[in-house]
Design a protein that fits this description.
The protein has about 140 residues and is of the alpha/beta class. It contains 4 helices and 4 strands; from the N terminus they run βαββαβαα. The chain is about 25% helix and about 10% strand.
Length: about 140
């Protein structure tokens, strides 16, 4: 009820992350607290996983790179585990994105392409990115080793 005694009906949120299972690797602060991020994901239809299960997780949200000079897995938590998982499966089936993907998708009211928000380059150094070639900025090459 609001101040005038009327019952307000809140419009249901779009479930833009339905059918997604998301694992959050480490802290997403200072951009957003991990508790708030989990709440937003659940509110918009995602399931949040407490462990990186290859068969269930569809997306991994990475924090800032934890290694020297911007290398390594993001978030500063379980970086070795994430790196080993990426090397074992080659990133197949699991999308690695930054927290901005969630926030911008919610702002847009639809699920945005993950390639725009990838925080980790899985390709060899100098390998051209298909997304980078059509993006219009940069030369479409990867900076990773």
């Amino acid at each position: 009820m609001n101040v005038s005694g009327e019952t307000s009906v809140r419009a249901p949120e779009k479930k833009i992350f339905s059918n997604l299972c998301i694992y959050i690797n480490g802290s997403t602060a200072p951009r957003i607290s991990d508790h708030r991020l989990k709440y937003l994901l659940a509110e918009h239809g995602a399931k949040v996983s407490i462990m990186l299960g290859r068969r269930s997780v569809t997306h991994v949200i990475l924090g800032a790179p934890s290694g020297a000079e911007g290398t390594g897995a993001g978030g500063g938590l379980a970086a070795t585990k994430i790196q080993k998982e990426i090397q074992r499966i080659g990133g197949c089936g699991v999308k690695y994105v930054g927290v901005d993907w969630v926030l911008e998708s919610i702002k847009a009211g639809k699920r945005l392409p993950e390639a725009q928000f990838s925080t980790m380059k899985l390709s060899a150094k100098g390998q051209r990115s298909v997304y980078g070639m059509f993006k219009g900025t940069g030369n479409g090459t990867s900076d990773a080793s």
